[in-house]
């Protein structure tokens, strides 16, 4: 499946918001969409070249579902857990090579030491003995690189649900346990590789949750030997805290999110809310993290913050600046890169609405490196820096058949970027399939040196956006452009190509004849190639309006005999044909020369014409 965005003027009803979240995920966050397929694509952004590739798609069956974060082993491979699927449906432990070859090491049976939750919760931690250690919802286990699993400890219910492990300098593991059930508000614990458990601190709601409740992320180790962490909720502001805890269990609250507004104040007044991810230690000795919601600039879509070991917090970035393109709702922690910058992901937002991968400097300059499709389930887990300098991560599955999540790789280079069109990368912008028809709107996928997404703002449509043009050199034509980003251009196929069965397309840098164009790509043309736009890729909700220009949907159904407007493209040649890149005329209307067959509920509808005063985009029926 190609990564895509709707043509300008069509908004998705899905992300980036997700105001109605369903449940907490195994990565200490929340979830709710669909991820479909694997891609490998080079991305040019901000003067650097990034290569993004999907390494593995989980089926949700025997190979597992809902992968958590990864850890790299001494053999160079990555190890992780699935919260579901496997031979018995209770999750797996897996190994995956940097090239994407996956081996299931263990399938949980439901009998690994407890009748409580038996699926793995957090990721794995590498021990000093070369084995991996992890937790299910009720147990602590060890697994060898060959797949031999041993249950070492069974947690008491009162301890909460163990989440994450961190290897301490003493060779023991330190972890957090989430609350959630009645009377349980979370804990911090220590456990030896042999399974000897010590509870270090129990969170309590006393005094309006001054210590916070429900820690969901792993701890971070400071240069002072203490551990630093977050609680997802509670504290003086009611929406989470940052804390420090000594190896002996003495805990200090460093910051309570929520600002001066008091418990559960308006998100607009907060310095952040719900820190679900772990902290990352920077080269400056400070810690960096994210909050899923709120932000001092009033966006409410999350923040990136810096906090000193003594508790001075600074918000260095608020998501949602200028729209959703920079991401929304970061739920994972950050990862320190070799360049001293931090790398992370957001669950929502981005160019396509399905979440992002981003880089942010310690000073707060954010660069979006990759945007996931709106149909995809956004990333929720902290990225892992591999020994090859690339970042590895996972996306969870939706629970739908065949959709169990993915493992991906992001290689961050230092090139100047390239200009290219993907093979078979020119498709109908509504159906996302080939061929395309003259006069229709096409989505062109490739690599384009466009730093920030841009849309046409005037008519006739321009023939370049941010200096990038789409040409048909054999015909001597340029395509009018609706939209451009680093991965996609939306363009009108010139009317002048009507009657052709094939043509060549190239991308070029407008105004720079010395810059070579992209390699030519052949595209197939058809007399007509209809496609109906959708406003929600998850539900398939069509872009269909009633006579009052309201979306026809389950809550606003169309009555028999009613007039509806169907947004579509690719209906072929029309009478009173407008010039390429210009609006359709209203007197007389431009009527399709070939009468389309339109059925609604298997009943034929009538009449198709271009919408007056708009570049050909949709038809009336």
Short key terms for the protein model shown above:
elongated, 50 strands, five-stranded antiparallel sheet, 37% strand, 621 residues, disordered N terminus, 0% helix
Number of helices: 0
Helix content: under 10%
Strand tally is: 50
pLDDT averaged over residues: 81
Q: Structural class from helices and strands?
A: mainly beta
CA-atom Rg in angstroms:
26 Å
Question: What sort of overall outline do the alpha carbons produce when their principal axes are compared?
Answer: elongated
- Largest sheet properties: 6 strands, mixed
Strand content: 35-45%
The separation of the N and C termini measures: 30 Å
**Regions with little confidence, pLDDT below 50 for 5+ residues:** 1-48, 615-621
Description:
The protein is 0% helix and 37% strand. It is built from no helices and 50 strands. The strands form 13 sheets. Strands 32, 35, 36, 37, 40 and 41 form a six-stranded mixed beta sheet that branches. The radius of gyration is 26 Å and the shape is elongated. The two termini are 30 Å apart.
Question: What layout of secondary structure does this protein have?
Answer:
Blueprint: E1 40-45, E2 48-57, E3 65-67, E4 71-72, E5 78-84, E6 92-96, E7 102-107, E8 125-126, E9 132-135, E10 139-143, E11 149-154, E12 161-167, E13 173-178, E14 187-191, E15 197-202, E16 220-221, E17 227-231, E18 241-245, E19 251-256, E20 280-281, E21 287-291, E22 303-307, E23 313-318, E24 335-336, E25 342-346, E26 353-360, E27 366-373, E28 384-385, E29 391-396, E30 405-412, E31 420-428, E32 436-437, E33 441-447, E34 454-455, E35 464-465, E36 468-472, E37 477-478, E38 481-484, E39 488-492, E40 502-509, E41 521-526, E42 531-532, E43 534-536, E44 541-542, E45 544-546, E46 564-566, E47 568-569, E48 599-600, E49 603-604, E50 619-620
Parallel strand pairs: 32-41
Antiparallel strand pairs: 1-2, 2-30, 3-5, 4-5, 5-6, 6-7, 8-9, 9-10, 10-11, 12-13, 13-14, 14-15, 16-17, 17-18, 18-19, 20-21, 21-22, 22-23, 24-25, 25-26, 26-27, 28-29, 29-30, 31-33, 33-39, 34-38, 35-36, 36-37, 36-40, 38-39, 40-41, 42-47, 43-44, 45-46, 46-50, 48-49
């Amino acid at each position: 499946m190609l990564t895509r965005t709707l043509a300008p003027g069509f908004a998705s009803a899905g992300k980036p918001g997700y105001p109605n979240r369903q449940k907490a995920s195994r990565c200490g966050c929340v979830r709710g969409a669909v991820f479909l397929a694997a891609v490998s694509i080079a991305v040019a952004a901000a003067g650097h070249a990034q290569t993004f590739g999907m390494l593995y798609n989980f089926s949700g069956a025997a190979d597992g579902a809902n992968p958590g974060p990864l850890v790299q082993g001494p053999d160079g491979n990555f190890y992780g857990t699935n919260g579901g699927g496997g031979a018995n449906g209770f999750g797996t432990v897996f190994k995956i090579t940097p090239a994407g070859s996956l081996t299931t090491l263990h399938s949980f049976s439901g009998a690994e030491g407890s009748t409580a939750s038996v699926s793995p919760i957090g990721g794995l931690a590498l021990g000093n003995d070369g084995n991996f250690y992890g937790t299910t919802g009720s147990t602590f286990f060890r697994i060898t690189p060959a797949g031999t699993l041993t249950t070492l400890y069974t947690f008491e219910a009162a301890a909460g649900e163990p989440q994450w492990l961190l290897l301490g300098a003493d060779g023991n593991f330190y972890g957090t346990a989430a609350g959630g059930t009645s009377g349980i508000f979370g804990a911090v614990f220590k456990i030896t590789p042999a399974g000897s458990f010590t509870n270090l601190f129990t969170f309590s709601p006393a005094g309006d949750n001054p210590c916070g409740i429900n820690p969901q992320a792993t701890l971070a180790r400071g240069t002072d030997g203490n551990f630093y962490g977050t609680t997802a909720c509670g504290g003086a502001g009611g929406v989470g805290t940052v804390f420090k805890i000594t190896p002996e269990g003495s805990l200090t609250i460093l910051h309570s999110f929520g600002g001066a507004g008091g418990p559960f104040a308006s998100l607009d007044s907060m310095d952040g809310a719900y820190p679900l991810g772990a902290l990352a230690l920077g080269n400056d000795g400070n810690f960096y993290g994210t909050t899923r919601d709120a932000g001092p600039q009033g966006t409410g879509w999350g923040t990136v913050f810096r906090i000193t070991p003594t508790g001075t917090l600074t918000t260095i970035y608020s998501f949602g600046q200028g729209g959703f393109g920079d991401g929304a709702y970061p739920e994972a922690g950050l990862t320190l890169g070799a360049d001293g910058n931090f790398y992370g992901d957001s669950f929502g937002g981005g160019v396509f609405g399905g979440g992002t991968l981003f880089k942010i400097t310690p000073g707060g300059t954010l660069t979006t490196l990759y945007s996931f499709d709106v149909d995809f389930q956004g990333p929720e887990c902290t990225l892992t820096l591999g020994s090859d300098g690339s970042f590895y991560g996972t996306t969870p599955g939706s629970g739908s058949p065949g959709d169990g999540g993915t493992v991906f790789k992001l290689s961050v280079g230092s090139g100047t970027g390239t200009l290219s069109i993907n093979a078979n990368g020119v498709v109908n912008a509504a159906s996302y399939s080939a061929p395309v028809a003259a006069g229709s709107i096409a989505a062109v996928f490739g690599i384009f040196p466009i730093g920030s997404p841009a849309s046409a703002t005037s008519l006739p449509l321009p023939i370049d956006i941010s200096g990038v043009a789409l040409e048909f050199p054999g015909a001597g034509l340029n395509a009018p452009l609706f939209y451009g980003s680093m991965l996609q251009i939306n363009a009108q196929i010139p009317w002048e190509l009507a009657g052709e069965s094939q043509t060549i397309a190239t991308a070029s840098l407008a105004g720079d004849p010395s810059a070579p164009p992209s390699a030519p790509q052949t595209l197939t043309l058809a007399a007509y190639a209809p496609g109906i736009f959708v406003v929600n890729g998850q539900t398939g909700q069509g872009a269909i309006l009633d006579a009052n220009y309201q979306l026809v949907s389950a809550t606003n159904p169309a009555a028999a005999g009613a007039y509806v407007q169907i947004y579509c493209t690719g209906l072929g040649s029309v009478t009173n044909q407008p010039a390429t890149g210009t609006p359709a005329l209203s007197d007389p209307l431009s009527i399709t020369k070939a009468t389309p067959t339109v059925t609604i509920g298997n009943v034929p509808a009538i009449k198709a014409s271009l919408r007056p005063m708009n570049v050909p985009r949709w038809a009336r029926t």
